[in-house]
Design brief:
CATH architecture of the largest domain: 3-Layer(bba) Sandwich
Number of domains: 2
Shape: globular
Largest sheet: 7 strands, mixed
Distance between the termini: 34 Å
Number of strands: 19
Strand content: 15-25%
Radius of gyration: 22 Å
Length: 409
């Protein structure tokens, strides 16, 4: 039976929401937690995206996951005699999915996700009223936005107002499991790990790939420098008071897409084999449609070259923004809540002043730094939000009892 009143309502059911729910359950098991997500299940979108892109393992080390105990993944893997992947114990995709399911089941969180779309969130006295698109509503003491509202980055040259070219697609619309590309030439635009996954996946299915990156391909093991997971970078970041400066710092730290060393090595190998043609430091300045094919004009250092492809896959990423979730934009307007370039300006407890709700994930970058949307950020957000929910006195008791680093909010 779906509840009409809860202590904490989580909007979203991905790794961010699961990490917050796990932390809350560990600190305050008596609290009634409820999650709302279109899928009605934990990790559904995450699992779909990893399967759609043929991603064999996570980019994050095994110590980063939704469980509040950093060693939980290692224990899970060893109990099942799964070998560690690489020096950082990267979790295999299927094993990580099973791990998350077990985490939720062990603490009674496996049946708290309701299928629904949030249409509106409003103050109801000291509580909140959460209204779903279906017309159902519930009341919550605390609301946590742990979804991942993002706006696609679409280079202007590829914007198709008419919508007539379904062979030009953003990566979020591509599922390699059903891609019929044998014998075709696929233009992949982008230089990050998604571009690699799409390129390698297309080649594995019999396609030839033209990979176009606006700058030289770069190898980085992680998408954010490990210094951003601790005081090396976060101490100075915490001293920045101007939200614009924080936003600029976050953008500089993330610095666009990159591939892991193994992925970049594989791209170079495919290029030597002739399956992939790589154009680095190039931007697409024009596109001409000739029948069913597309001729892309690339520019580098003032020189132009043309390539012909059957399809264009845009691995150009997306931007976290409140504008991608209608109810957040409405809340911001109603409360005149502070925002900088689409990101809410939050307090230390990840509460959005004026609205009263908590915000986690990539939307919390101005407070948590560039790794806010990663699994590290999920656990960090869980600790801060749990501290706000249970109160300082009880949180201090938990801190004193615990020997785990996760509780340092």
């Amino acid at each position: 039976m779906v509840p009409s009143r809860v202590d904490v309502c989580l909007i979203g059911a991905g790794p961010q929401a699961l990490a917050i729910a796990m932390c809350l359950r560990s600190v305050a098991p008596e609290r009634h937690i409820h999650a709302i997500d279109p899928s009605g299940a934990w990790m559904h979108s995450w699992e779909h995206n990893f399967a759609a892109f043929d991603i064999p393992h996570l980019r994050s080390p095994g110590v980063h996951h939704p469980h509040p105990d950093a060693s939980a993944w290692s224990r899970f893997r060893q109990a099942r005699t799964f070998p560690p992947l690489g020096q950082y114990d990267f979790p295999a995709t299927g094993a990580f999915s099973a791990f998350c399911s077990e985490c939720a089941r062990e603490v009674g969180l496996d049946r708290i996700v309701e299928a629904g779309v949030v249409g509106h969130v409003a103050r109801a006295g000291t509580r909140f009223s959460v209204e779903l698109a279906s017309g159902r509503s519930l009341v919550a003491d605390h609301v946590v936005v742990a979804a991942n509202p993002r706006r696609r980055r679409m280079p202007a040259v590829f914007v198709d107002p008419s919508g007539q070219f379904d062979s030009i697609r953003h990566s979020s619309d591509i599922d390699l499991r059903v891609a019929e590309v044998a014998g075709r030439t696929i233009g992949v635009v982008g230089g990050g790990l998604t571009a690699y996954n799409l390129a390698a996946g297309a080649v594995a299915r019999g396609a030839r790939v033209v990979l176009i990156s606006r700058r030289e391909l770069r190898a980085r093991q992680f998408d954010a420098d490990p210094g951003w997971l601790g005081p090396k970078c976060l101490a100075a970041f915490a001293e920045i008071e101007d939200p614009r400066e924080r936003r600029a710092t976050v953008l500089a730290a993330r610095d666009g897409g990159s591939m892991t060393p193994a992925a970049l090595a594989r791209i170079r190998e495919l290029a030597r084999e002739g399956s992939v043609s790589v154009f680095e430091g190039c931007r697409v300045i024009a596109i001409e449609h000739r029948g069913a094919r597309h001729v892309l004009t690339l520019e580098r250092d003032g020189a132009a070259v043309s390539v012909s492809v059957d399809e264009v896959w845009l691995a150009t990423g997306s931007e976290p923004t409140i504008d991608a979730a209608g109810f957040l934009g409405a809340m911001q307007a109603d409360a005149d809540a502070p925002v900088e370039d689409g990101l809410p300006i939050l307090d230390h407890e990840l509460r959005w002043p004026g609205t009263g709700i908590h915000v986690a994930g990539a939307l919390a970058m101005l407070e948590l730094g560039p790794a806010a949307g990663n699994l590290w950020g999920a656990r960090r957000a869980g600790a801060r939000i749990a501290r706000a929910v249970v109160g300082e006195e009880r949180w201090s008791e938990v801190e004193l009892r615990s020997t785990l680093g996760w509780v340092r909010a």
